[in-house]
Specification:
- Strands 3-6-5-7-9 form a five-stranded mixed barrel.
- The protein has one helix and 13 strands.
- The chain is mostly beta strands.
- The chain has one domain.
Length: 174
């Protein structure tokens, strides 16, 4: 685990990765946020040809390869979830080829949600296109996640303050 010299809030090209600008995918790092709270991140490899938006949720394989979250994660039982961190709340990055970045897995973060969230502390799980949704009755058992909770309420889709505690899928495989 590393904790110094990281550039957490940007996307790196394959060339930058090969030059050592970001560690091997799967490497974990810690940092302290502006409020003095601990945060933890994992270096990830991202597929090319995507428009990456700050706060998107990804599933993260053991080898550090991150896949944009989908509404049907049934084949990812026990799989890790992370939230992509970019420089500002409205930051986006379009990748041409394989790229690398950091996903937050512990601490307070901003994550994209698809609809209103009405309960602080409410459980969130993966929706479509890397956005989170509130867990409600009727959600598929395979999409149930733990370790990601709303830290605020919000009346519409957009960025929501969430608390990450090493989120993962707890549902049963289909």
């Amino acid at each position: 685990m590393i904790s110094a010299g990281m550039q957490l809030y940007r996307v790196f090209t394959k060339t930058e990765y090969k030059r050592g600008a970001i560690p091997v995918p799967g490497t974990r790092a810690t940092a302290v946020d502006s409020n003095g709270a601990s945060c933890e991140y994992i270096a990830v490899q991202l597929a090319g040809g995507q428009t990456l938006i700050n706060g998107m949720a990804f599933t993260i394989a053991a080898n550090g390869v991150a896949t944009l979250g989908t509404a049907n994660p049934s084949l990812l039982f026990g799989g890790r979830i992370g939230v992509l961190c970019l420089a500002s709340a409205t930051a986006t990055s379009t990748t041409g080829g394989t790229s690398y970045g950091w996903c937050q897995i512990y601490g307070k973060a901003l994550a994209l949600v698809t609809a209103s969230v009405t309960a602080i502390g409410g459980y969130l799980t993966m929706g479509a296109d890397g956005r989170l949704i509130g867990v409600i009755a009727g959600n598929s058992a395979s999409s149930v996640a733990s370790g990601i909770n709303a830290a605020a309420t919000q009346a519409a889709s957009g960025l929501l303050s969430v608390l990450l505690q090493y989120p993962k899928f707890d549902g049963y495989p289909a």
